[in-house]
Amino acid sequence: MNLVGSPNWISGVALCAGNTAAVNRTVYGWFPYPDFTRTECIVLFGHNPKPHSWTPEYNAIRRAQERGARLIVLDPRRSENAELADIWLPLRVGTDAAMCFGWLKVIMDEGLWDRDFVKRWTAGFDELRARVNEFPLDRVAEITGVPADRIAEAARLYARSGPAVIPWSPITDQQRNSTSAIRLQAILRAVCGNLDAPGGEVLHGFHPRIVPETDLEMHDALPEAQKAKQLGSDTHPVFTYRGAAPLEEPTLRVWGRRYANLVSGCYMATPSAVFRAMADGEPYPVKAFFALGNNTLLSFANMQLIHRALLNQDLLVTFEHMKTPTAALADYILPGDAWTERKALADGFGWTAICRTSQQAVSPPGEARSVYDFWRGLAVRLGLRSHFPWETADALLDHRVEGLGMGFDSFAANHAAHTDGLKFRKYEETGFATPSGKVELSSSVLAGLGFDPLPYWREEPPAPPDMPLRLFTGLREDAFFQTGHRHIPALRARSPEPLLFLHPEDAMEAGIADGEPAVAETAQGKVRMKAAVRDDMQKGLVRIPHGWWLPEAGLESAWEMADAQLCPDDEDFLDREQGIPHFKGIPCRVAPAAQGATHSH
Ligand SMILES: Nc1nc2c(c(=O)[nH]1)N[C@H]1C(S)=C(S)[C@@H](COP(=O)(O)OP(=O)(O)OC[C@H]3O[C@@H](n4cnc5c(=O)[nH]c(N)nc54)[C@H](O)[C@@H]3O)O[C@H]1N2
Ligand SMILES: Nc1nc2c(c(=O)[nH]1)N[C@H]1C(S)=C(S)[C@@H](COP(=O)(O)OP(=O)(O)OC[C@H]3O[C@@H](n4cnc5c(=O)[nH]c(N)nc54)[C@H](O)[C@@H]3O)O[C@H]1N2
Ligand SMILES: [Mo]
């Protein structure tokens, strides 16, 4: 895309870690990774690792707890991790940023911050402190629904435990106040002295001897004039080229490269803006769309808009395993290979300096090809062969590990994971990769883009009076990954259909019985699924699982049960700086569904 001149690459990582990485860079120049092995305290903002979800992280947390580390869980629902926590804060859905202000208020009022680090290495502490003072605990208790003394207890535990970690969470990636929530988490790490410290959170940088994906992406090749046309960068710039431009020089200074595409999320167009251009031709038309291992129709907000956008293309190609609802709309479905069928080198999505390897177990069946073959084949036909000197994906892997003095196969045979000795507190030699070289508690990058340089809290706009409940989408199913795998009988047997979760009192008020079909409706759309009445739910909260469709019924079934049609993407429901949608607390109502009747759009 950089070689043909298109800046309009989008990805699911706009809602999942890619955007966290981009926002973290504005604060201290990289996205840190927790040192679970030495930490004394773990804070989970919703994020709920389980034996069948984030298994390595689940194991790391349990091992840390066994050696005495404390666990704080913030979750409106009594989740698996909430049950295992030292402190569980059942906050109102979507109020994580306000909760962070409460923690900072306690930390500042009680002098629990790391004075030496703050003095030497941060910029904007006094301005931040003035903002934090706008959040006395009774205000935070009012917004979050959690009593002030519980908030204070959790803040003290975080600040006093010794090194503490706030692992990445997709939950704060998907809120109206997402940029502020992510920045406040970053600020908590910094002011409590947890940054780049043993048992804290480490700024990895690049693996010194392995070619990172960022280099292969050729961001230099895309002319500035094309970067300027990146959709959404005028209104919601944080993870676009425009948003990351002020970090180019600092990134070169500290990390040795101008571009650092952490979690592939730092140079994206804004998805909603791209779908609008595709559907309506504004501000300019987009006429061809390639979906590579992405079930686009179901994987962003406003499925109705995405549907129009996809139908309005002259060319729609999917690179897939399955005839997904997205593929069902495509002109071509190209068969992609699978992870067991290819070799792989993974650096935590560009996030870490730990490189993991994976070997090929079986050959791809039929015409299935690697995505590298697809891109290179296209490039050769476009006259761009010289930029793809590696004839095969394997040759490219050999090139990436050349610096280690061996080919990929021998590297993978000897190393499941490889790192060149991570160091702590590297900033003492290099400073941070921000324009000031410090941790920017008040952000020069955001100020330059015309935003509030300090984190802030944006209230929910007035909800329609007939929408008294709040729903969240996104909860993961043990049996499936995201929108996939419903075609596998053994997995479907564990989880045959989607369930709409709600609290017993809300069910009673709406006249919904456990196990009976129900409808959840927002201003954007509605879904129909079986009700699951559970007392682990908060009163007033509805939980809709992500990504359901039935492969045996195809696209039509997505219009009955896919969560993306419930999620609006108008400005009230978009984070200002990133333009990502609010999935955590959408006003809704629920009702029993007429038996047998199915919903159609
Ligand atoms: N088996 C399996 N594993 C997976 C996946 C899968 O599809 N299947 N998907 C993978 C992917 S891509 C991701 S992103 C992760 C996601 O996995 P997690 O990070 O665990 O996210 P969720 O399961 O969506 O929700 C976690 C918790 O957030 C709580 N929550 C909801 N709204 C809020 C809120 O506003 N604030 C707070 N503090 N908490 C809230 C929910 O009650 C829930 O308990 O899982 C990964 N692992
Ligand atoms: N409405 C809504 N939108 C969301 C979310 C939500 O909760 N609600 N969650 C967000 C999150 S956290 C994430 S991570 C994203 C994920 O969004 P997506 O990237 O769309 O993830 P999947 O739904 O897993 O779809 C991946 C597709 O790739 C195919 N596939 C799998 N492996 C391969 C492969 O090796 N090669 C090829 N060629 N294809 C493959 C699968 O068949 C599947 O159809 O969605 C985000 N969007
Ligand atoms: Mo995700």
What small molecules accompany the polymer chains?
ligand MGD, molybdenum atom
Largest sheet: 6 strands, mixed, barrel
Q: Compute the number of strand runs.
A: 20
Strand order of the largest sheet: 15-19-16-18-17-20
Task: Specify the number of helices.
Answer: 23
CATH fold-type name of the largest domain = Rossmann fold
Give me the CATH architecture of the largest domain, please.
Answer: 3-Layer(aba) Sandwich
Fraction in helix: 25-40%
In short:
This protein is an alpha/beta fold and 601 residues long. The protein folds into 3 domains: 34-200, Dimethylsulfoxide Reductase, domain 2 (3-Layer(aba) Sandwich); 211-418, Rossmann fold (3-Layer(aba) Sandwich), CATH 3.40.50.740; 469-595, Barwin-like endoglucanases, CATH 2.40.40.20. The chain has a 6-stranded mixed beta barrel with strand order 15-19-16-18-17-20. Strands 4-3-2-6 form a 4-stranded parallel beta sheet, with helices on both faces.
Describe the protein.
With 601 residues, this protein is of the alpha/beta class. It has three domains: 34-200, Dimethylsulfoxide Reductase, domain 2, CATH 3.40.228; 211-418, Rossmann fold (3-Layer(aba) Sandwich), CATH 3.40.50.740; 469-595, Barwin-like endoglucanases. The protein contains 23 helices and 20 strands. It has a six-stranded mixed barrel with strand order 15-19-16-18-17-20. A four-stranded parallel β-sheet has the order 4-3-2-6, sandwiched between helices. Strand 11 and strand 12 (355-358) form a beta hairpin. Helix 4 (96-109) packs antiparallel against helix 7 (137-144) and helix 4 (96-109) packs across helix 8 (148-160). It is globular, with a radius of gyration of 24 Å. The two termini are 34 Å apart. One ligand MGD is lined by residues 12, 15-16, 170, 293-295, 299-301, 319-322, 324, 336, 338-339, 473-474, 481-484, 546-547, 563-564, 567, 583.
